[in-house]
Amino acid sequence: MYRWLVVAALATGLVWPVGSPSIARGEGWPSPAAGQTISGDPEVIFTFDDGPDPRSTSKVLDTLAAHRVQAIFFLVGWRFQRGDLAGSRVLLARMLDDGHVVANHTITHAQLCGLTPEQLDREIAGARDLLEREAAMRVPWFRTPYGAYCGRLLDGLARNGVQHFHWDIDPQEWQGKSAKSTAAYVIRHLARLQGRAVLLMHDTKPATAAALPEILAWMDSENARRKAIGRRQIRVISGPELAAERVKPTLDWLATAVASGPTRLGGVLAGSIP
Ligand SMILES: [Zn+2]
Predict the structure, then answer these.
(1) Angstrom distance (rounded) from CA 219 to CA 183
(2) pLDDT tens digit string along 128-147?
(3) How much is the pTM?
């Protein structure tokens, strides 16, 4: 039931993934990327960029399903414009069926700081519109390619009403690292994790698909070991759980509005609109 509330909230665009709507100029993206741990446990959020890719995304989805991990997939629009369009649609449908959150990673994966305002709008809002048509739901979450950060981009994000969802752990496997060194990098960082971290990987890379089973198997055995000695386990925060956190103020507000009775509901609603 709760999950459906979250999905509904996401679908209506009521929930934002990170921070406050305005990011002060010159400060860079927030760190940690998705706030502090709430449970007190080490918390990790799995995110995958640049897909869907018919060669490797289904293997990533199989591994996530086997370990009951729900992630956030930042998709690029061009995969729904050319190439294996039918394959991209099947993978998108599976992501949604498996409970993952799908999000916007522009159309062409451009370096956004080099674009004109018109080109920026096409990459941000154009990809959002395209993905919303494909997913048949709102797709409010966004990640800028390469983590680009500049005034022009901040203007573009504000103009289009979106925020960038950054990361904390980047194994850089997109540069051609092997599965072995990718897994070792991620495991090393998860082993010493104390707060909350967003993990950035790429479901388009065979090395990622090959490293993920090792990472999740390590987490299972590490958590079993920690449980046995009474240490805090590493907790996966799913996309829907993160959405639940962000939408909680909205749900609380709705509860207050409903509790205030039908006659006052109009006033509460009106008062909420700037
Ligand atoms: Zn990317």
Answers:
(1) 11
(2) 999 999 999 999 899 999 99
(3) 0.85
Q: What DSSP element (H or E) covers 85? A: helix 85-97
Which CATH number is 225's domain given? 3.20.20.370
* Residue 183 located in a structural domain: yes
- 189-248 pLDDT, tens digit each: 999 999 999 999 999 999 999 999 999 999 999 999 999 999 999 999 998 888 888 776
Domain that residue 198 falls in: 33-238
Which residues have a catalytic role annotated?
Answer: 49, 202
Q: Which residues have their alpha-adjacent CB atom under 5 A from ion ligand 1? A: 49-50, 145
Separation of alpha carbons 237 and 171, rounded Å: 19
The tokens for 178 are 């092997």
> Distance, CA 247 to ligand 1 centroid (Å)?
26
Q: How many domains does the chain have?
A: 1
Whole-number Å distance, alpha carbon 201 to ligand 1 midpoint, is 9
Task: State the distance from the centre of ligand 1 to the C-alpha of 161, rounded, in angstroms.
Answer: 20
